Amino acid sequence: MALVCVEDYEKEAFRNIPKNALEFYRSGAGSEFSLTLNIDAFKRWRILPRFLRDVGEVNTDCNVLGYKLSTPIGVAPTGMQRTVHDDGEIGNARAVGKVGGIFILSTVSTTSLEEVAEAAPNTTKWFQLYIYKDQSLTESLVRRAENVGYKAIVLTADVPCFGARRADARNKFKLPPHLGLLNFQEDGSSNVKNMQGFSGINEYVTAQFDPTITWTDVDWLVKFTKLPVVVKGVLTREDALLARDHGCRGIIVSNHGARQLDSVPATIEVLPTIVDAVGNDMTIMLDGGVRQGTDVFKALALGAKAVFMGRPLIWGLAVNGQKGAEHVLELVQRDLELTMKLSGCVNMSDITKDYVAHESQFSK
Ligand code: FNR
Question: Catalytic center at which residues (predicted)?
Fold first, then answer.
């Protein structure tokens, strides 16, 4: 069967990923209300196309946090990518490099940050940071990322503890024995493999991540690193203002793929409020439920400068390694270009809120 969209890749991946890993990647928190909402909320925005403009060539070149890119579509940090295919993080980093987008490497990766940097030198790479109880571990991760050329630190703010992932609790998902969290010493202390009990991942987070962090730690990070700091996981105007006031350069509006607190809004629902609050002061980006070009277009129209996809790249990897990841990115990129042509937008700066309307506007 020809695979022509992310949904096709998802269906194909569901057939070939082992059940407990599949459930780890697919699932959301609680009753998965927000997981469904992330997808459905995009459908509540309509695109208002303009015609009879010269759309012979469209261009997705853009500038995000001062870095030149050929696409606003990037890869969100997802943990343990080699679980689904041995190409893992390197496959995804190289794939998004080919379309000229950003790769964000998770702290809990199954390939070390140095190996990814060496294998994908031409990709713009950012490093996603969890703050560990062991301060020296956190410091060394940041310095290592700086030393090998990562261009921003993405601090994930929404994991003071693990969300209620029922699927993982049922399946007791653990990292397969041949893989490890390779940003850490294999001495066992920081390794999820050694965690027993109801969900290995949950135990790891509880043991290692610092649940007491506050905006004071953000102040520390902004001072400690020479890289721009981006906060990932902001869902309110209030936290957006705090991120700005504490010196962060960007925000990823995210609900962690609906894996933390269930019943939070879809990210596209809160994007306009956050752009309204701080859009002139900081770079606002979004992830959660982005699956096709029209989703990317809507997020850009509502003020995001870039979007990231998480699960779609897992499905791409699972189906055909790096080639599958490349194809997923190409499909969404081509779909964005098509959306631009069919709506009369030639450049990124043409895509404004004039091109979208919320469905509530049609029911008045
Ligand atoms: C994630 N996400 C995530 N975020 C993060 O900051 N660090 C991490 O290690 C992970 N790990 C992770 C694993 C898996 C399996 C998923 C699905 C997600 C969240 C991720 O960066 C992103 O916010 C969402 O995946 C975006 O939503 P979509 O594109 O999956 O709908």
Answer: 256
Residue 94 lies in a domain: yes
CA-CA distance, 330 to 113, in Å (whole number)? 25
CB 286 within 8 A of CB 307: yes
pTM for the predicted model, two decimal places: 0.97
Number of domains in the chain: 1
Check pocket membership of 254 for ligand 1, CB cut-off 6 A: yes
Both structure tokens of 54: 């010269």
Is 99 within 8 Å of 62 (Cβ atoms)? no
Percent of the chain with pLDDT over 70: 96
Distance 58 CA to ligand 1 centre (A): 30
Ligand 1 contact, 249 CB (< 6 A): no
Is the residue at 1 inside a domain? Answer: no
Atom number, ligand 1, closest to the C-alpha of residue 156: 6
CATH number for position 150: 3.20.20.70
Ranges in the chain, pLDDT < 50: 187-189, 196-198
CA-CA-CA-CA torsion sign (156, 162, 167, 173): positive
Q: What pLDDT is attached to residue 285? A: 99
Residue 311 counted as an annotated binding residue? yes
Give Cα separations from 198 to 77, 79, 203, 213 (angstroms): 24, 19, 8, 25
86, 241, 351 from 238: Cα distances, Å:
41, 5, 26
Q: Could you tell me the residue range of the domain that residue 251 belongs to?
A: 6-361
CA of 207 to the centre of ligand 1 (A): 20
